[in-house]
Amino acid sequence: MNEKILEIMNTVLDNRTKEKLTSITTEMHLRNDIGFDSLDLAELTVRIEAEYDIDIFEDGIVNTVGEILKKLESK
Amino acid sequence: MNIFLKDIDNEKLVTWDYLIDDINNTSIYNPYCKSADYYTVFKHIILSFLIDEEIILLDSDFTESELINLTGRSEYTEFSKPFEKCKISNLSNQRELIEKLSNSSKNWKITLFTSGTTGIPKKVSHDFKSITRFVKVSERNEKSIWGFAYNPTHMAGIQVFFQALLNGNSIIRLFGLDTKDIYTEITNNGITHISATPTFYRLLLPYDELFPSIERITSGGEKFNKKTFNQLNEIFPNAKITNVYASTEAGTLFASQNDIFSVRPEYEHLIHIENNELLIHRSLMGSPETNFDEWYNTGDVIEIVSKKPLKFRFVNRKSEMINVGGYKVNPLEVEEAILALTGIKNVRVYSKPNSVLGNIICCEVVTNSNQITESSIRTFLQSKIQEFKIPRIIRFVDELSTTRTGKLKRN
């Protein structure tokens, strides 16, 4: 699943010509470490929803990669 | 130290004394103001006011082609000119500056641009009276410290600016900062008031600390849900939370404690409801380039809760404008920009509900060239329109989906 999330995140980063990631760790902060802004987070949720059928921000904003993975695992 | 503006993103800490010195030492004015530096924008607004001339505010991220569309040019240096120094006799202190500002100028107006409903962004001007209609100057407000959470060249930002300015308050920039920094700024500066879009608040949540300094939270620009409301109540235990209804054309019009808006009795005769759409009287509007009829159609569909006194709830929007995190995007403007790219045969821009921004812009395109890729469309658009208007999801299709009447379907 990590691979797929990395790929999705890189698509979002690439779309804004931001630097791509080589790997992700659970501690990474979506905004402070990866550099997503609200437009990116909005796109991220749509792309993850298309893949996993789950809206990761439905119950409020999640902050880290680990929190996303947890949401997807608990599906 | 009496702070006028703190903007950590631009590394600025400006006191009221510095502002006054700076104004006293300025002798050149340019009516066009396009800057990413909040202090420059604020100083320009004050200056325009003191010399009683128009100021035209441009978003700092407008692209060259947007500027040409809006103003007929993209370079404004030639408009810089010296002004008669006697127009602003040397100011000695904050009190004198505020007094001068409160004696409204005759010719002064502030002009900004809003995405029009017809595809072409339109120009709207406000005079002092319409821009400050909801500004409250009082002793109680003297101690307010404002968290500034809007774009300074947009209507909502200008209104917060005037509220803070005329009360001699401090303005602490929060807009565009990381969540962590926003919370640090609230604590370090003892911010008491924040006005922002629901998206701004949503991005602050969830959080497990409390911020007791906040007395007032105002939200507007898009629908505010119960969940966000409850979470804000927990983080800001001493804050009163208010919703406002405002538009670039009219400024702030109504406020509410929940989703039901009540109209002040003195405004009741200036509000009209036709086929459930909210109409507002011309006298409440700024002066747009093209004249309004006596009543202005807001495009907002409302549901009346009580007739006397008039109370209502917003249901949805009649127009096709898409609200992206409080920014209004006109799908026609985006479609036009995409169609300008060679190889695009047809395009449909639509919105999808989104848990972060309220709505997200998507599009379907039909191409007749295999050179067109998602990234080539994006790169092209980055030079044409502001970032928040660019579709985040682009789908390639053989033909566009249309409604039964043959109209392009937006939702």
Brief sketch in words of this structure:
The complex is a heterodimer of chains A (75) and B (411). Chain A is an all-alpha fold.
How would the blueprint of this fold be written?
The complex is a heterodimer of chains A (75) and B (411).
Chain A: H1 2-15, H2 38-52, H3 65-73
Helix pairs in contact in A: 1-2
Chain B: E1 3-7, E2 12-15, H1 16-24, E3 28-29, E4 32-33, H2 38-50, E5 55-57, H3 64-71, E6 81-82, H4 94-102, E7 110-114, E8 122-126, H5 128-131, E9 145-148, H6 155-166, E10 170-173, H7 179-189, E11 193-196, H8 198-202, E12 216-220, H9 226-235, E13 240-247, E14 251-256, E15 260-262, E16 271-274, E17 277-281, E18 287-288, E19 295-306, E20 311-317, E21 322-324, E22 327-329, H10 331-339, E23 344-354, E24 358-367, H11 374-382, E25 393-396
Parallel strand pairs in B: 1-10, 4-5, 5-7, 9-10, 9-11, 11-12, 12-13, 24-25
Antiparallel strand pairs in B: 1-2, 3-6, 7-8, 8-18, 13-14, 15-20, 16-17, 17-19, 19-20, 21-22, 23-24
Structural class of chain A: mainly alpha
Number of strands of chain A: 0
Q: Tell the overall outline of chain B.
A: globular
Q: In the residues of chain B, how many domains can be counted?
A: 2
Task: Please indicate the percent range of residues of chain B in DSSP E strands (runs of 2 or more).
Answer: 25-35%
CATH architecture of chain A: Orthogonal Bundle
Query: Compute the gyration radius of chain A: what is it?
Result: 11 Å
Structural class of chain B: alpha/beta
Q: Which two chains form the greatest contact, residue counts included?
A: A-B, 21 and 26 residues
What is the averaged pLDDT score of chain A?
Answer: 90
CATH class of chain A: Mainly Alpha
Question: For this structure, what is the CATH class of the largest domain in chain B?
Answer: Alpha Beta
CATH topology-level fold name of chain A: Non-ribosomal Peptide Synthetase Peptidyl Carrier Protein, Chain A
Task: Tell me the distance between the termini of chain A.
Answer: 13 Å
- Overall tally of structural domains of chain A: 1
CATH superfamily of chain A: ACP-like
Q: What does the oligomeric state look like here? A: heterodimer
Beta-strand level of the residues of chain A, as a percent range? under 5%
